[in-house]
Amino acid sequence: MNVGGVKKEHGVKPDINNTLCNFPFAQIALKEWDATSGIVTASPCCNSIRPSNNFDPLNLRNKLHNKNIDEIFYSKEMNELRDSMLNGEKHSACDVCWSREDNENPDSFRLRSDMNFDVDFNNPKIQKVDITFGEDCNLRCRMCTPKLSNKLRTDYKFFHENNLDVSGVDFFDFKDEDFLKKDSEKKIYYWKTNEQWNSILEKLNELKSVMASGGEPLLSKQFLEILDKSPSSVHIDFHSNCTLFSKNIIEKLSRFDKITLRASIDSVYENYEYIRYPMKWKILEKNITRVKELKNVKIDINCVLSVLNCFDLYKLFNYFDDNDISIFVDLLVPEDKFISVKFLSKELKEKLIYEYSSYNSDRINLNDAINFLKKYIDLESNDVNNKNMLREILLFDKSRNQNYKNYLSKNLTTF
Predict the structure, then answer these.
(1) Which position has the higher pLDDT, 254 or 54?
(2) Is there a contact between 159 and 103 (Cβ–Cβ < 8 Å)?
């Protein structure tokens, strides 16, 4: 199938001089499911939802009921996206990448979209699916949402039942009757097994790769079903908080030829425990040691930058001083959360840029962090932003009986 009538030479790759991306030609991302209607929307990748909390960049919402993944992949909207890329146009669904490439040191998800298989821009076909497996999770990470971690509904209910000021605190400043229900922290609202799920299972023998996120995928029966039913040749690429590597899980993983583990770890020791409550650092250490014994697993650490960890990242880099482990420092979603580093003083942002530049390398990718800090270097801190930052931090401190002064860098606590 030739899309758009524009032929591309074999071997051409996405680069700063073209508008190509591997994702729309080989992957479909199914990041939002509903308990009654199945797949709610779809996109070429998870990153396309980033610019402004637009969870539907291709305007597919409510158009996918009972459509299988082939019908979604070859939909009019996906074909138009591929057409625009082949014609050298910058489609709005990919604004997150176009904006990140508009820097003195261009870097984006598009430019890093290398696959472990060949992508034919003239004949797009599904070779990889990227699935969010519901919101079941065992952690209450401060930068996450009660929609992606059901355990965060404990905090959500605490805030609303105690009439705390959550105005402007992203993902917590609205009333959701489901989240307020008894035992909502144990419920899964954003998943359904149906005919669409079966169309994915039937496709497993044709796929080169399956990517998974959550929630925590290792708590998902559907992800475990993927591990049980996929051929060993399928590349399993999954996000995990790395706290649930039981003997049973290790056995399931061991039979695959190749696995990429995108370890969600933002810091070390007490700072880690503060951010990824209620997990203990020693438990994480034991799990990491266990999974590192698997020779088929490549570990990539995904770290989310915020004021909570920005002054402690060097400890993370030094702890994982292993050439086989890559570290990518990503930005908050949305990027203007109250705990964003953009709201720090110019002096502190300059300090971070200097420190991060010394660590930035092929193994430790700080390009997005450095570019973000430079972009907002002249945004002065003010009393309103400082109070909002402290208010968000104290909200979670109250719901967890913590005190930020015991966990965060003095650079921040004095600020």
Answers:
(1) 254
(2) no
